[in-house]
Design brief:
With 283 residues, the protein is of the alpha/beta class. 34% of the residues lie in helices and 22% in strands. It contains nine helices and twelve strands. A seven-stranded mixed sheet has the order 1-3-2-4-11-5-12. A three-stranded antiparallel sheet has the order 9-6-10. 24% of the residues are buried.
């Protein structure tokens, strides 16, 4: 049989190549549909884990805190505790903002130990004491009004043409609840345009630093640049920072005391002494 002319053969190969290319998307879609992919779990990068050395027990002691500051040190301290080693194979500490905690977490005992504000815990579950036992009150702190111009005053004359910055978070003691309560106690009512609300502490501090607001509440020293040029007036000298809560079914005097002793070693994080709440304290 005579062979096809070269031009014809070339054209035929070209057409076949085009058909193959046209089929690739359909073949790819078919192949993809036949695959069974496992759901990708990104994991929780806001956590730290250490091993107690008890390799016979794979249970993990779960801790929830509000900040990453000294979180790893605290976990390591707990991992070294003999009583912890008897009961658990590892300690995992997770840090999330205050609003992360839910009523479901409390009722179901998601965390063995957690740190949060009293009003948050009992606001979520009024009968929270049925599920968690407070074992340590963390240090209280002083809260201030802060201004760049002059020492702030709670008077109509001083506030007349000034703006105050607040957090949008209505559970924030430092940047919403305490300053609002102080204004109300002084009988002062700001006009809407005098109140500015921001989505987070960072945004609030930026607004203050740029002059967008005249006054904010905060700690002393402030995190604002050129802090030495700021003016402070005491707002509240005794603001609770929170409590450590142990899951009620885990409460044993010796175990709770060991935990409390470990927790108060980190008082320098809040610049003040914690208070152990256990009956009779810790011996």
């Amino acid at each position: 049989m005579p062979s096809l002319p070269i031009l014809c053969r070339t054209t035929t190969h070209y057409v076949l190549a085009l058909i193959a290319l046209a089929c690739l998307p359909a073949l790819g879609a078919w192949w993809y549909s036949q695959q069974h992919f496992e759901k990708l779990n990104l994991g929780d990068y806001l956590s730290y884990r250490c091993e107690t050395g008890n390799y016979r027990d794979d249970s993990v002691f779960q801790v929830l805190t509000l900040t990453s500051a000294q979180a790893a040190d605290l976990a390591n301290q707990l991992c070294k505790n003999p009583l912890m080693k008897q009961r658990y194979g590892a300690v995992t500490i997770t840090w999330h903002p205050r609003a992360f905690l839910t009523a479901k977490h409390i009722i179901e005992g998601k965390f063995h130990l957690l740190w949060n504000r009293h009003h948050v815990v009992h606001g979520l579950v009024p009968d929270a004491a049925a599920f968690y036992q407070a074992i340590v009150d963390t240090p209280r702190y002083a809260l201030y009004w802060i201004s760049r111009e002059s020492p702030p005053e709670l008077s109509e004359h001083y506030l007349k043409n000034r703006t105050i910055g607040f957090s949008n978070d209505q559970q924030s003691q430092t940047f919403y609840l305490r300053p609002m309560a102080a204004l109300q106690a002084a009988g002062l009512h700001l006009r809407p345009e005098q109140q500015r609300f921001y989505p987070g502490v960072g945004a609030l501090m930026e607004a203050f630093a740029s002059g967008e607001v005249d006054i904010i509440s905060g700690l002393r020293p402030s995190t604002v640049e050129n802090d030495e040029q700021l003016h402070y007036t005491l707002l509240d000298e005794n603001v609770p920072s929170g409590s450590w809560y142990l899951r009620r079914d885990l409460y044993r005097p010796d175990f709770a005391c060991e935990l409390a002793t470990s927790l108060i070693k980190f008082d320098d994080m809040l610049d003040g002494p914690s208070t152990i709440l256990l009956p009779g304290g810790c011996q």
